[in-house]
Request: fold
Amino acid sequence: MIMSTTDSQQQHMVLDGDDVGFTSGETVLQVAEREGKKIPTLCNDPRLEPFGGCRLCVVEVEGIANPVASCTTKAEPGMVVHTKTEPIEAYRKLLLELLVSENREVDVDALRGYASQEFASLVDRYGARTGRFVGSKSGSSRLDDDNPFILRDYDLCISCYRCVRVCAEQEGDYAISVMNRGFGTQITTEFNGLLNDSACTFCGQCVQTCPTGALADKKALKAAELPGAIHKTRTTCAYCGVGCSVDILTKGETMVGIHPAMDGPANLGALCVKGQFAFDFVQHEERLQTPLVRGEDGELHETDWDTALDRAAAGFKRAVDTYGRHSVYAVASGRAPSEAAYIMQKFVRAGWGINNIDNCSRA
Ligand code: SF4
Ligand code: SF4
Ligand code: FES
Reply:
């Protein structure tokens, strides 16, 4: 969208008594967060279109009778906003108490997903475990869904629809949707089936945006009983050339899961099924630790690097001597670092004098 000079001009409003600037098009929540206000949110994910479903982010705007959702309300010049009045805080606490009353549990293992602690931390911040409300529970878990990656534990669902929206807006997949209303509201796939039978690509984005852990990473949860704290290490996914940023989750020496980096410049929280879930190879008992060469018996045998490299060089030489240099073709692994890719093309171009070099990075 091309903005006119007037559109992009900095405008002013009053936020909790302070004059603050904003750019046309920004929401009150965006302005408030930039100013350091801690407005609680549950249905908001900054990567998604504002939704206005949970009402936790309400604020008072002078001249407007009822509180408004700050995530869907655009900032206006001269607007006077109060983000933390007594009635507003009481209203937020009431909403959280109601949500607590209809969920099976609040405290979930952080291995369930990136955002899984959001609900519990807000409940604690507002002291909302009061037990004032008791009654029906909403959502029915689909524990019969035997897909290997995603636990669908909807007893913990608060109907924020972040999963549905991230699937549609970020992944473009529309694999999940909402059926029924009120306490009967249920996140579902087409024909209420299993994820394996839906359009799901198992990108895991719904898991990572779920603020209650209702959607959970089954593979990571297997490590829930392992002792020790979860340690995160920022790195780049090794699968292809896109360069998605990830946080590797470890407990002690064991790799237990992966969180997408929400601030990763190449992926902004998105991953594919391989980057999200296919990390078993790292610690797999059958992972190759030494080079193998095929013996006279036709079987592969462990050997040292010098022997393996000599064997490979002899094979290349035989092919070139027999069929000419254009008979050789190299494909660099997308998992290799840039330095290794550079050496590989140098080996092909300068070593063999050909340009038969490609890579597998177009995953
Ligand atoms: S894993 Fe990805 S594709 Fe599947 S339902 Fe979740 S967001 Fe949609
Ligand atoms: S499953 Fe999670 S993300 Fe989806 S609506 Fe329920 S609480 Fe929200
Ligand atoms: S965060 Fe604004 S209504 Fe949910």
User: Anything to note?
Assistant: The domain at 9-84 is CATH 3.10.20.740 (Ubiquitin-like (UB roll)).
